[in-house]
Amino acid sequence: RFSGIDFEIIIIDDGSPDGTQEVAQQLEKIYGSDKILLRPRAKKLGLGTAYIHGMKYATGNFIVIMDADLSHHPKFIPEFIRKQKEGNFDIVSGTRYKGNGGVYGWDLKRKLISRGANFLTQVLLRPGASDLTGSFRLYRKEVLQKLMEKCVSKGYVFQMEMIVRARQLGFTIGEVPISFVDRVYGESKLGGNEIVSFLKGLLTLFATT
């Protein structure tokens, strides 16, 4: 609020039962509906469509996408903005695997799965970015719109495809080391089905890019 940057916070909630909408409504009353825009949807419709839904209401030139459970800490946003200005990047991606980035709150199995997925992706796709499965990113608005038109993946592969397509289209990508802290309440949705769909999506991208 004191940064001199003009901003708005758009909250997309897909009918979650955890009280997200109620908290967002309270924030809207405190900070005003020009700063906090609650744009709920009746049911879970997927991450990609949530991006499209949010973009319809974004009035700025840049969009920062992050999880609303504070796994992604807002303190990194000024670093994303600094990095973007420094290199005039089209995308600035948060990375857990570079510099002083890291993950907190995951057990060994989850860390191994994440590291393994990232390693496989690096070997097969050579994307030129160190963290492909994270979703804490800053996009130039028109770049995000173009990528959304190109991407077809769902689930965890979606984030990966965004970076791969960005490289294909010649967009520039900068990285900022971040600390990812696993949610304190609720459980991760990563299971056997997600791992299988990730591997299928990875092979599809390998075959088509």
Automatic annotation (TrEMBL):
GO terms for cellular component: endoplasmic reticulum membrane. CDD domains: DPM1_like. One of its GO terms (biological process) is GPI anchor biosynthetic process. It comes from Cisticola juncidis. Its main location: endoplasmic reticulum. InterPro entries: DPM1-like (IPR039528), Glyco_trans_2-like (IPR001173), Nucleotide-diphossugar_trans (IPR029044). The lineage of its organism: Eukaryota, Metazoa, Chordata, Craniata, Vertebrata. Pfam families: Glycos_transf_2 (PF00535). Keywords: Endoplasmic reticulum, Glycosyltransferase, Magnesium, Manganese, Metal-binding, Transferase. It catalyses: a di-trans,poly-cis-dolichyl phosphate + GDP-alpha-D-mannose = a di-trans,poly-cis-dolichyl beta-D-mannosyl phosphate + GDP. Component of the dolichol-phosphate mannose (DPM) synthase complex. Belongs to the glycosyltransferase 2 family. Residues 6-147 form the Glycosyltransferase 2-like domain. Its cofactor is Mn(2+); Ca(2+); Mg(2+). GO terms for molecular function: dolichyl-phosphate beta-D-mannosyltransferase activity; metal ion binding. Transfers mannose from GDP-mannose to dolichol monophosphate to form dolichol phosphate mannose (Dol-P-Man) which is the mannosyl donor in pathways leading to N-glycosylation, glycosyl phosphatidylinositol membrane anchoring, and O-mannosylation of proteins; catalytic subunit of the dolichol-phosphate mannose (DPM) synthase complex. This is Dolichol-phosphate mannosyltransferase subunit 1. It is found in: Endoplasmic reticulum. Coiled coil: none annotated.
